[in-house]
Amino acid sequence: MAVPAPTVSRAETARRLTDSHGRVIHDLRVSITDRCNYKCVYCRTGEYGAQYPELAISEYLRLIKLFVSLGIEKVRLTGGEPLLRNGLIELIQDLARLRTTSGQPLDIALTTNGHLLDKMAAPLKAAGLNRVTVSMDAVDAPTFERITRVPGSFKKVLGGIRAAKAAGLTPIKINCVLLRGFNDTEIEGFAHFARKEDVVVRFIEFMPLEEGRLWTPEIVVTLKEITDRIGREMPLVPLAPREPSETARRYTFADGIGEIGIIAPVSQAFCGACSRVRLTSDGKIRTCLFSQVEHDLYGRMRAGQSDGELSDYIVSIINEKEARHHIGEPGFLKPSRSMVHIGG
After folding, report:
1. How far apart are CA 218 and CA 57, in angstroms?
2. Is 1 domain-assigned?
3. Which carries the bigger pLDDT value, residue 333 or residue 250?
4. Phi and psi dihedrals of 225, rounded to 5?
5. What are the DSSP calls for 209-226, one per residue?
6. Which pLDDT tens digit goes with each residue over 30-39?
7. Which domain holds residue 160?
8. Structural contact between residues 68 and 116, judged by C-beta atoms closer than 8 angstroms
9. What CATH number is given to the structural domain containing 71?
10. I want to staple 116 with a disulfide (CB 3.0 to 4.6 A). Which of 83, 166, 210, 313 is the partner?
11. Is residue 5 domain-resident?
12. Which of 68, 131, 130, 128 is nearest to 92 (CA)?
């Protein structure tokens, strides 16, 4: 059922979400479930079911509208695995009707493990989804299935990527989390995959966001190691960032065919240009992946607060956004939730 537009004033609409460090926040990540049909070894130790409650799709829509009215320009739907949620197509249809405060269509993206994407790519595109990112941690099938712990998963994900390409959900980005001793043998293979499949492969340094206690500095494969290894086989050429807050260092190959990116939050943190805020599947605001405090936006909505009051609360929370994370520093604490329960 459609949800009425937030009743915020013109003055409120003109506000931009800016934190106390001068960063403009225009990118919202919304987890619509923490359920997942994979149990990747670096992510999950438990079962597939949800640990935190899920909101109704109409409730996510109301909260997203509030953020958009305050200057959010990009919304990425995440999980868990968002393709597991009933009502996803309808949510995207409603989001596609929204306009940003500058009058432009909302930029709508989705991150998925790709297992269900082969059948859903075309309906997602028709609903208004702009592009898709697929989490894929190996291009060698046995290695991939050892990571996901789901037989047949590599074939399903490869089919989903190709279906997304055919549907026009481009540019398709492939996110690979690298772990030394697990899949660091896949680096060169992914470089070839980017060129062959015409996708943007993005390597991500492993962060301490897993459910178990796997993370150590030694297991992180750094940006320098990645570029050195690929460069020995295929020379890389740096690309300029598309915008100041872009998280990935971008490269193409000497012949201009293909692109890779490297997201290096551990070895080369990019907190100073952060433009993101997250909404968990149970309606909590997280101003950083590594926040030690969550802010219960949904609880205030359930208590009957008006859209104006909720907007004021969002603005106040964003103003308190952390300056940076503290990975690797003395006294660093992992967040209370793992990545699957926060939303990518």
Report:
1. 41
2. no
3. 250
4. -65, -40
5. -SSSS---GGGB--HHHH
6. 999 989 999 8
7. 10-342
8. no
9. 3.20.20.70
10. 83
11. no
12. 128
CB–CB of 301/63 below 8 Å? yes
* Tokens (6 digits) for 54: 């899920």
Q: What is the pLDDT of residues 312-330, one digit of tens each?
A: 999 999 998 887 665 655 6
Instruction: Report the distance separating Cα 309 and Cα 149, nearest Å.
Output: 45
pTM across the whole model = 0.88
- How many structural domains are present in the chain? 1
Q: Say which residues have a Cβ less than 8 Å from residue 231's Cβ, sequence separation at least 6.
A: none
Q: Give the pLDDT confidence of 144-201 residue by residue, as tens digits.
A: 999 999 999 999 999 999 999 999 999 999 999 888 888 999 999 999 999 999 999 9
- Residue 50: other Cβ atoms inside 10 A: 17
Residue pair 30/82 in contact by the 8 Å Cβ criterion? no
Indicate the pairing of strand 248-253 with strand 173-178. unpaired
Cβ distance 290 to 278 under 8 Å? no
d(CA 279, CA 344): 10
Q: What is the C-alpha to C-alpha distance for residues 174 and 122, in angstroms, rounded to an integer?
A: 18
Q: Is residue 240 exposed (0-12), middle (13-18) or buried (19+ Cβ within 10 Å)?
A: exposed
